[in-house]
Amino acid sequence: MLRVAVTDPFPLFRHGVRMALAEAGFDAESPTDLLTWARIDEPRLLLFTVRTAQDWDLLSELCQARAGTTVIAVLEDASMPASVRALNAGAAGILPRDATLPTMREVVGAAARGDSLVPTSVLRALTERQPAGEPATAAGHPSTAEREWLSLLARGDNVATVAARAGYSERMMFRLLRDLYTKIGAANRTEAMIMARDEGWV
After folding, report:
1. CA–CA distance from 7 to each of 46, 48, 72 (Å)?
2. Matching SMART domains, A to Z (predicted)?
């Protein structure tokens, strides 16, 4: 049997979501120790509200806690970068915090069946390496988005900051930067910074 949980900093919001889920046939709870709850060996579905930097860190932990636990990220900021970041962190679905009850039931119902309802625009952003509307770049040259990453690194920002700005998890950002270094022919970050300055990319 699928166990469902709802977490949110506001008790009234938690209560409202649990009542709405009960009407859809889901008996939801609100555990205090989320990681322990997520690691129990049985099918589990968690609606987890993401509002702070600490929430983003916990989201990644919850998504990696156990394969049988499905996490839906409830986003106060349901922008494209935040949506992409949540899915890259491992969330199986995203839900704006101000979503309508029918939308919430659809997203939760899909997750309970092992499916995911993701807006087409977010799906495209996840699957397209070249940002929408950006012209193709010459081989070995960074795209506009990649130049922005290099600029942030050149001014001293760390990978976590770049990831947050780009809407990716830190782990995914490390992968993207590694691919970028290979693309421009740099062996590491230091070489990439030198090349970026020499080529006028930053």
Report:
1. 8, 5, 11
2. HTH_LUXR
Q: Where are the domains of the chain?
A: 3-126, 144-199
pLDDT greater than 50 at residue 100:
yes
CA dist., res. 162 & res. 184, Å (int): 19
How many residues in total does the chain contain? 202
Work out the pLDDT band at 85, boundaries 50, 70, 90. confident
Residue range 3-126, CATH number: 3.40.50.2300
Highest mean pLDDT among 44-48, 132-136, 182-186, 189-193: 44-48
Distances, alpha carbon 134 to alpha carbons 73, 123, 162, in Å? 28, 17, 19
Quick one: fold of 144-199?
Answer: Arc Repressor Mutant, subunit A (1.10.10)
Measured CA to CA, the distance from residue 24 to residue 102 in angstroms comes to: 10
pLDDT tens sequence across 115-142? 998 888 888 777 654 444 444 445 568 8
